[in-house]
Amino acid sequence: MANFKNSPATKRFIRIGTIPTFLLYAIFVIYPIFNMLGLSFVKWNGLLGKKSFYGFKNYQILFQDPNFYLAFKNTIILIVMVTVITFVLAMLFASMLAKGKMAGQSFFRILFYIPNILSIVVISAIFYMLYSADYGLIAPILSLFGKTYSGVLGNPDKVVYSVGIAMIWQAVGYYMVMYIAAMDSIPDELYESAGLDGATKARQFFSITLPMTWQVVRVTLTFFIISTINMSFLFVTAMTDGAPDGASNVLLVYMAKQKAQGNFGYSMTIGTVLFIFAYALSLIIQRLTNKDPQD
Amino acid sequence: MKQNKLIKSLTQHPLAYLLLFIFTIIFAYPILWAFFSSLKTSAEIKQSPYSLPLVPQFVNYKNAWVGAHMGDYFVNSVLVTTLSMILLIAMVIPTSYVLSRFEFKGRKLLNIIMMAGLFINVNYIVYPIYLMINDVGKAAFGNGLLLTDNRVTVAIINAVTSVPFSIYLLSGFLKGLPKGYEEAAKIDGCGNWRILGSIIIPLARPSILTVILFQFLAYWNEYLVAQTFLITAAKRTLPVGLLSIMQEARTATDYGRMYAGLVIVMLPVLILYCFVQKNLTKGISMGGLKG
């Protein structure tokens, strides 16, 4: 065992620097996450009700619950939609704005980032109104083309995608800034020699930009998964609260609803399954992207 | 000179600029639209969503600030945000200093435990936390609400759940500092607190500022914890208040007031952003890339 020669004063300093923070962290983060796991094996209805051990029964119910699958499907739709479109747009803007090639690049960078600093409630309110058939921005445009618009948030086939668009609007700037930073650190010589060899811009992107930013892209893929799961909860709660009739439920919303209905144990089961799913998906993505895209 | 550069740039990349201008409208217009709408009458909002307000309706702001209590919620938001920030900084500066610059038994384990927290979002645990605090309140005071319906509790939860990310950001920076200063100060007989206060904190100021900026935005915009815990209407924070105006607006169709409330929530953040946008965007590349 390593022997660290710290003076008594330093030892005390280390204790003061770690114990209070870790104690609070254990109480407010670690204990609750294990509590979630534990409660998922319990049948428990309401704060006053009695808890009784339920084994894997909650999990059995979960895997036969069509509403769970609907919320799961919506979560996956949003993860895929938000990740793919945000990634493409952020990469596109970043490759235009990186390295100061274009005049006015800082104006666009500053402006595109703004949605990211706003509260999700603010963005949800704006998009709720923007989508509205009576008050929104879409109906007047469509009526120019002689089409009628009856709103998207009340339409079970369109509501999830409409929430997705608001989420993309919010996220693009953040990832764009990350990709700009990664692209700025690529040496200019690589592009110069590729240019001399006659490589097109598109070719340069796939043979230089993408491989050189690959480590950052991998990190952001994990961010995409985790933040889409979390953000979708806040967006859906503020914009539709699952309406119409649960069609826009995502898993965390469904979890909150089950809790509100008094099915505490069951709601924790949903949380546990989602937590494991998010973690596993991140690990799988990290494994799959471990290779350089050029290999 | 500068204009020439812009024109040259424009002619070189016409398609790129076209695309950027389209997205400038997509990103900026909804926000501007909310500003304009906050100054319109309800009839104007319904009749012509694209028009400018005929006569600015500042009464919407009065209705939101006083009528919908957004003024009170503003004070609550300032209180909760400030307290969350003080608690966070008090925890995070010493802890990330110790974890990144000292050798001691168990350090690796503590680092791993802290980084695992990056995966645990408050969305999952907000209800288990509620149950725990409710139980403690009942056991200690016979009344769970005493602790749950409490702005201090919300601030503590905000602060503690943002500890892992803040330590991750700060430790990354502190690890890169040269050891020379601390060693010289130690030889001069400076204690650890002195070194932290007069050497480490001044050196780490840019990254401490980044943490503060990020967490200010997070705390100011937060609504899930506040909504779950604060049952008394008078204790609400701004985003929770906005959410309830939104719900009322659906039935009462007082959308002018809702837009005004929305502007009240986002204006402080936009003003701050004008001053600090460089620190913020630098912080992202700093924190995000070192993963």
How would you describe this structure to a colleague?
The complex is a heterodimer of chains A (295) and B (291). Chain A has 295 residues and is mainly α. Chain A has one domain: MetI-like fold, CATH 1.10.3720. Helix content of chain A is 70%, strand content 1%. Chain A has helices spanning 8-39, 57-62, 66-97, 105-113, 120-131, 138-144, 159-184, 188-196, 201-212, 214-239, 251-260, 264-288, and strands at residues 42-43, 52-53. Chain A has a two-stranded antiparallel ribbon with strand order 1-2. In chain A, helix 1 (8-39) packs across helix 12 and helix 11 (251-260) runs antiparallel to helix 12. Chain A starts with 7 loop residues before the first helix and ends in a 7-residue tail after the last helix. Chain B is mainly alpha-helical. Chain B has a single domain, classed as MetI-like (MetI-like fold, Orthogonal Bundle). Chain B has helices at 2-12, 14-37, 42-47, 59-67, 70-101, 107-116, 122-141, 145-148, 151-161, 163-175, 180-187, 192-203, 205-221, 224-229, 238-252, 255-289. Chain B is flat. Chains A and B meet through helix 1, helix 3, helix 4, helix 5 and helix 7 of A and helix 1, helix 2, helix 5, helix 6 and helix 7 of B.
Instruction: Give the strand order, joined by hyphens, for the main sheet of chain A.
Output: 1-2
- Which architecture of chain B does the CATH hierarchy give at level 2? Orthogonal Bundle
First and last CA, distance of chain A: 42 Å
Per CATH, which architecture of chain A? Orthogonal Bundle
Biggest beta-sheet profile of chain B: none
Q: Using DSSP, what is the number of strands of chain A?
A: 2
Are there runs of chain A of 5+ residues with pLDDT below 50, and where?
none
CATH superfamily of chain A: MetI-like
At the fold tier of CATH, the topology name of chain B is: MetI-like fold
Indicate the multimeric state.
Answer: heterodimer
* CA-based shape of chain A: globular
CATH topology of chain A: MetI-like fold
Task: List the secondary-structure elements of chain A in sequence, H or E.
Answer: HEEHHHHHHHHHHH
Rounded mean pLDDT of chain A is 91
Approximately how much beta-strand content do the residues of chain A carry?
Answer: under 5%
DSSP helix count of chain B? 16
Task: Name the CATH homologous superfamily of chain B.
Answer: MetI-like
Q: What is the helix fraction of residues of chain B, given as a range? A: over 70%
What is the beta-strand fraction of chain B? Answer: under 5%
Q: How many separate structural domains of chain B?
A: 1
Please write the CATH class name of chain B: Mainly Alpha
